[in-house]
Write a structure and sequence with these properties.
The complex is a heterodimer.
Chain A (H helix, E strand, L loop, with lengths): L11 H7 E12 L36 E2 H13 L3 E2 L6 E4 L9 E4 L6 E9 L5 E13 L3 E5 L11 E5 L6 E7 L9 H19 L11 E11 L9 E6 L2 H20 L7 E6 L4 E7 L9 E2 L10 H9 L5 H12 L3 H9 L3 H9 L4 H18 L11 H12 L5 H12 L5 H8 L7 H14 L1 H8 L6 H11 L6 H11 L5
Parallel strand pairs in A: 12-13
Antiparallel strand pairs in A: 1-10, 1-11, 3-6, 4-5, 4-15, 6-7, 7-10, 8-9, 11-12, 13-14
Chain B lengths: L5 H10 L6 H24 L17 E2 L9 H5 L5 E2 L2 E5 L6
Antiparallel strand pairs in B: 2-3
The chains are: A alpha+beta, B mainly alpha.
Chain lengths: ~500, ~100
């Protein structure tokens, strides 16, 4: 059962009239390395519980961690892409806490010596405005194990009799990226939060350091938010909404917290510094635990690992190899594809930019690639709550469907059925066309017969058309399409009807 | 020398979800104070010419290639666990979290 808090919310506009929101965003990215951060255990998803552990990631006495070189390289790349300075020398630190998700009883992280710091990321809002988000730091750490809470009604800790731990995930490399306080966004703060996470996701994918799939928890966002009355410089007390795991949720969580904080403050109350849980169903947040202070974690330098001192030449080499930044790439693609800023933003939010690019590279015209991914396929992804990229269809298959449409062998309606068949696992497009018998009827003889039958069955309509009422032809086209189970080329059918009845289209 | 106060012990106990009685707080405050005092003597020896260090060897950048090494089997991994269930480590109820 969800713990419901009875809070009244202040209408969004009213909250913004009185207060100025300040946000901080913390994003955790699980790297796509083959092995964990400090040991050689595999990071493959979906393995049997506790089948990817070793003395190091189980925290056994005497086991010694050794840093994954690709983990460090990925961290430097991310830092550089975020316009950060790269530390000349930095260390890992132990973050100590009492919770069973790390068998070591601490998480190996970085504290006051992050590998990257002082950067920024320019993000574009829906109307094209560019907002600069300042980056405080990006540091290396490790993921925790997965807990199952047993014996309660709902799988939550509250009410559980005991918990079960799978440590396969414990030790998978994470990069935590922390913004500086985001000020000056005003009413657009939730939109900035969403655009920032979207842009960061694109950047991470372009760097090829992680697939950054939010629905799989490869990228997770904490939204810190506080309000201060207009004109006041000092920040208010913040709440930290943890693990907000979709772009839409990031925006909703920020919006909800603005309204909730305003209600508490308007009522003369004080905001408690605490973590909060976000609820996907209704977009609300509820109280988690009172936040521990940094000193409660008793950070100290990790004595089992030696410092990291990225050589300058290597850093410059990595800088030279950075890919085209997503925002600039999108600008280029937008011009090439001839689409609006708004359309591009929708494609970005849908995670479709790379898929459409790949489909075009596989031979599809830009407008068709866009149409299928943003239409039929986006709908299917929505219905099944998956990412577009996770759909069981490849850009090459979509390109093949586009090719068949261009060649006149499929019309749009049939093309949709082919896509549906591919998604249902019936095979590649040609197989689906064959199996389902989906071909535009281009046999003029068969089409002619169908047209003649439709005319004979609808004499009144035929007379109208003969008398010059061209608009009435639609009804006959419909009848023919029905007779041919949608497999005729509607434009050709119309032509034939008008021809037969001696009318000019 | 700053000592460990009773309040600090109570705070640590709260973080560890341990319930301590008043006399225990006094008892542990005294003990922890002794331990901290003993360790603090190191700072008397370390003068300004001795930089703080976290590692005894002057090494940097010790890394390994990103290559998978065999893991333990789940049976081996769980062999030292006091309790297990569904091939997972079983731990008592987690307190003070939601």
């Amino acid at each position: 059962m969800t713990v419901t808090e009875h809070v009244s919310l202040v209408p969004y506009e009213d909250a913004l009239a009185t207060y100025d929101p300040v946000m901080g965003l913390e994003v955790h990215v699980e790297l796509g390395t083959r092995t964990k951060m400090f040991c050689g255990c595999s990071t493959e998803l979906g393995a049997d519980p506790n089948s990817q552990t070793c003395p190091t990631c189980l925290g056994m006495p005497g086991a010694l961690p050794v840093v994954n070189a690709i983990g460090v390289e990925s961290a430097v790349k991310i830092g550089l892409a975020l316009n950060c300075e790269i530390a000349e020398w930095c260390r890992f630190a132990r973050k100590n806490y009492f919770y069973p998700d790390m068998p070591k009883n601490f998480q190996t992280s970085q504290y006051d010596e992050p590998i990257a710091f002082n950067g920024y990321l320019d993000v574009q809002l829906e109307d094209g405005e560019v907002f600069r988000v300042e980056i405080e730091r990006a540091h290396m750490e490790e993921d925790t194990g997965k807990s199952l809470h047993v014996g309660g009604a709902t799988g939550r800790i509250h009410g559980a009799s005991h918990s079960l731990l799978d440590y396969n995930r414990a030790g998978i490399p994470l990069i935590e990226i922390v913004t500086k306080p985001i000020e000056g966004a005003g009413a657009r703060a939730p939109e900035v939060a969403k655009a920032y996470v979207a842009e960061l996701r694109e950047l991470i994918k372009a760097l090829d350091v992680s697939e950054a799939r939010m629905e799989q928890g490869q990228m997770r966002c904490d939204v810190n938010l506080s309000l201060r009355p207009h004109g006041r410089e000092k920040f208010g007390t913040r709440s930290e909404t943890k693990n907000v795991n979709s772009l839409r949720s990031v925006e909703r969580a920020a919006r909800y917290e603005i309204q909730r904080h305003a209600a508490v403050l308007d009522g003369g109350g004080t905001i408690i510094q605490e973590t909060r849980h976000f609820h996907e169903e209704d977009g609300s947040t509820t109280s988690g635990r009172v936040k521990e202070e940094a000193e409660d974690y008793r950070y100290f330098p990790e004595p089992d690992l030696v410092p990291i001192a990225p050589p300058r030449e290597w850093v410059e080499e990595l800088r030279g190899g950075l890919p085209e930044l997503p925002r600039l790439r999108r600008k280029r693609l937008r011009e090439e594809w001839g689409v609006s800023e708004h359309d591009m933003q929708s494609m970005l939010n849908a995670g479709a930019v790379d898929l459409i690019t790949a489909t075009i590279e596989a031979g599809a015209p830009a407008d068709q690639a866009r149409k299928w991914w943003m239409g039929e396929l986006a709908r299917s992804a929505n219905e099944t709550s998956t990412d577009l990229a996770a759909l069981p269809i490849t850009p090459a298959q979509v390109a093949r469907v586009a090719e068949l449409v261009t060649a006149g062998e499929l019309n749009d309606k049939l093309a949709r059925q082919v896509l549906e068949g591919v998604l249902a696992g019936e095979g590649d497009p040609d197989t689906v066309v064959e199996k389902r018998g989906l071909k535009v009827v281009s046999d003029e003889g068969a089409l002619g017969t169908a047209v003649d039958e439709a005319i004979a069955a609808n004499p009144a309509i035929a007379d109208k058309i003969r008398a010059g009422k061209i608009a009435a032809a639609g009804a006959l086209v419909g009848a023919v399409m029905k007779a041919t189970r949608g497999q005729a080329d509607a434009a050709r059918v119309r032509e034939l009807i008008l021809e037969r009845l001696g009318a000019e289209g | 020398m700053p000592g460990i106060t009773r309040e600090e012990v109570a705070h640590l106990a709260r973080l560890a979800r341990l319930e301590l009685k008043d006399e225990e707080l006094d008892h542990f405050a005294g003990q922890l104070d002794d331990i901290i005092g003993a360790v603090a003597r190191v700072s008397e020896v370390a003068d300004q010419d001795v930089p703080p260090t976290s590692h005894p060897l002057p090494l940097t950048n010790v890394m390994r290639a990103d290559e998978v090494r065999p893991s333990l089997t789940p049976e081996q991994a769980l062999s030292g666990a006091p309790a297990q269930e569904q091939q997972r480590f079983k731990v008592p109820q987690i307190l003070g979290e939601d």
